[in-house]
Amino acid sequence: MKKNIDNFKIFYLSFLGKAVSNILSQKISDLWKPINNSRVAAIGFCSPYLKSINKKTQRIFFLTPSLHGLYHFDLNDKNITVSVNEYILPIEDLSLDRLLVAHSFEYLIDHKKFLREAWRVLDKNGEILIIVPNSFGLWRPYYKNNLSSLRTFSFAELNALLLNNFFTPIDFSYSLFFPPINNQLVLKRVNIFEKVNMSFLKFFSGTIIVRARKNYSAAILEEKKIIKRKVMQKIRS
């Protein structure tokens, strides 16, 4: 199946998509408490999670990856929607407090390049929240076949990617413990699945959600090491 906006629109209009939206919106709200006048950007397909991030914000930038296709969000005038190249974001340095990444990270080719760009646009204490399909979860085939994701992730992979690109993981959360079945009887009981399975089956969840903070000092130290290395090489030569 070709990846495009229509796939996400169809999914979130279904009973299954609405259940997922409710659960993940609550997760986002739990991980990110509202901050007065916060500057927020959401990249991917994030309209189902608008209510969980549109609290006390100064402005929200909805960034739709150009390869996803175009989509018009019905938002108020303090929000901006734009189609973007994920590796060159049209946002100034240090201009965001929070960046939500949903239905985007699993489609990237160069995760390092994207994370360095996210690091650039976030303020010194800025945070990124990434939602991705779990490599060991029940939802892995659904993400690949129905939503055309290029890959899935494990806890170790996400943790390493963030640490190696100047982000400090603060919290990992797990969600979607029910099977991806578009059945109303099952979906009415999804909260039971979430509560029962959270404690001992988290590594088999459908999604992994990671909250990480920009590590400003680590990047400065790394830059100093690179400069020192270049100076030493010139001295030796």
Please explain how this structure is put together:
The structure is a single chain. This protein has 237 residues and is of the alpha/beta class. The protein has one domain: Rossmann fold, CATH 3.40.50.150. The protein contains nine helices and seven strands; from the N terminus they run ααβαβββαβααβααβα. The protein has a seven-stranded mixed β-sheet, sandwiched between helices. Strand 1 (38-44), helix 3 (50-53) and strand 2 (57-65) form a beta-alpha-beta unit.
Question: Secondary-structure blueprint of this entry?
Answer:
Layout: H1 5-13, H2 15-31, E1 38-44, H3 50-53, E2 57-65, E3 79-84, E4 96-102, H4 111-121, E5 122-133, H5 140-146, H6 155-163, E6 167-175, H7 184-187, H8 190-197, E7 207-214, H9 216-236
Parallel strand pairs: 1-2, 1-4, 2-3, 4-5
Antiparallel strand pairs: 5-7, 6-7
Order of helices and strands: HHEHEEEHEHHEHHEH
CATH homologous superfamily title: Vaccinia Virus protein VP39
Classification by helices and strands: alpha/beta
Fraction in helix: 25-40%
Task: Based on Cα principal axes, name the global outline.
Answer: globular
Distance between the termini: 55 Å
**Overall CATH architecture:** 3-Layer(aba) Sandwich
Provide the spatial order of strands within the biggest beta sheet. Answer: 3-2-1-4-5-7-6
